[in-house]
Every structure is written in C-alpha cells, then in structure tokens.
Design brief:
The complex is a heterodimer. Chain A is mainly beta. Chain A has strands at residues 4-6, 10-13, 19-25, 31-38, 42-49, 56-57, 65-70, 73-78, 87-94, 107-108, 112-116. The chains are: A mainly beta, B mainly beta.
Chain lengths: 117, 110
C-alpha cells in the first residue's frame, strides 16, 4: 500500500559530499514536493514540480537542486552537503485539484533523515 | 514570523483522557485548513480538511473546529489511545500555497 517511496530512510554524509535523495510515487500525481522538517520550524518547502521537467523554487531552495525526468520520480540533490543541511527530508505528491475543498491533499513519504558530519 | 502558530508545543495525557490542540493563523486569502497526523518515523497523513464555510468536522475520535473570523482552529481528541501519540500538524492553504505549523507533539501514557 506504499504510495510515496523515499529511497533512503537514514543517510550519513560528510561535508562537501554530493547527496541524492530519490522519491517515487505510484499514484500518477502531477505535483511533487520536497520539504525539510526541523524541530520548532515545521515543514519548509525546498522545491516543487508540477510536471515532468518542470521545477519551481520553494521557500528555501539555496544549496539544493532537483530533477524530474519522469512523472513518478522527483530527486533532490545537495551538490555539496553542509552541516546545516542535517535534517529530515520529506517528499510529497498531490493531484492538481484547485478547489477550496479539494486543494491538494498531500501524500507524504516516510522521510529521509540526513546527517552531515 | 510563521503564519501558522500551534499550541501547545507538546503535551502528555493519560490514556482515555481528552485533549485539545490549537492552531492560529494569519494566512490570507484562506482556502482551507488541514490537520495532519505524523507518527514517529513516518510521513504526515491527512486527518481532516476544513473549508471556509465549515465550523466542525469529525473523523472518528478526532474533531476539528474552525472559526474563520478569528482565524483559529482546534483539534479535539476524545478518549485518547496510545496510538494517538504523534505529532499533529496544522496546514493552511492560501490558493496554491501551503503554510505549515510547527506541530504539537502528543504523548499518550497508559
């Protein structure tokens, strides 16, 4: 019954390393999102994509990039990991339903906890 | 300043007791408000959605209320169970933009 799958649950990387976080959804959703979750701050949007090969910056895109080559897959890339990128990363997907009541319930993955040493 | 403020930050209750979580927001224009439940080690899962015209909505032992005039919502948990131990996140939609609260961590003890 898993609908949004994140490739790695736990990662430990060193400062300066390149990090790939992958997310796959099987619901044929148009929209995919990457958030980071830090204690006391809630979820913050890094990047989102509303179609294949399309991407939009969220609230905190600095230090990150994304790739969406296929509809079901959305990758988050840290080109050169830094210690302040230690966090829980959550991927989510949704359909494009722009109504007041149906506005995009998000389906989340289980999260990827990244530690940068 | 976060446009969605949740309180308390955390609470501990005994199994079988009730509790109420608060969410105040300044997001505008308002589309809808959702409460998500996030179990430890899992992603958030939607519990309820409230639109502008709805005051109360229930999902089993969870009841959400919304006062769009004062921009406040609450989530009431009735007869708490150990499985209610989780973080509860309030998410407010302004058209296509989502604003997340920091969450309330609920711990239910036997």
């Amino acid at each position: 019954d898993v609908k949004v799958t994140q490739s790695s649950r736990y990662l430990v990387k060193r400062t300066g390393e390149k990090v790939f976080l992958e997310c796959v959804q099987d619901m044929d959703h148009e929209n995919m999102f990457w958030y980071r979750q830090d204690p006391g701050l809630g979820l913050r949007l890094i990047y989102f994509s509303y179609d294949v090969k399309m991407k939009e910056k969220g609230d905190i895109p600095e230090g990150y990039s994304v790739s969406r080559e296929k509809k079901e897959r959305f990758s988050l890339i840290l080109e050169s990991a830094s210690t302040n990128q230690t966090s829980m990363y959550l991927c989510a997907s949704s359909r494009t339903v722009w109504t007041a009541s149906g506005a995009n319930v998000l389906t989340f993955g289980a999260g990827s906890r990244l530690t940068v040493l | 300043k976060n446009q969605v403020e949740q309180s308390p930050q955390s609470l501990i209750i005994l199994e079988g007791k009730n509790c109420t979580l608060q969410c105040n927001y300044t997001v505008s224009p308002f589309s809808n408000l959702r409460w998500y439940k996030q179990d430890t080690g899992r992603g958030p899962v939607s519990l309820t959605i409230m639109t502008f015209s709805e005051n109360t909505k229930s999902n089993g032992r969870y009841t959400a209320t919304l006062d769009a005039d004062t921009k406040q919502s609450s989530l009431h948990i009735t007869a708490s169970q150990l499985s209610d131990s989780a973080s509860y996140i309030c998410v407010v939609s302004a058209a296509v933009k989502l604003s997340f609260g920091a969450g309330t961590t609920v711990t239910v003890r036997a």
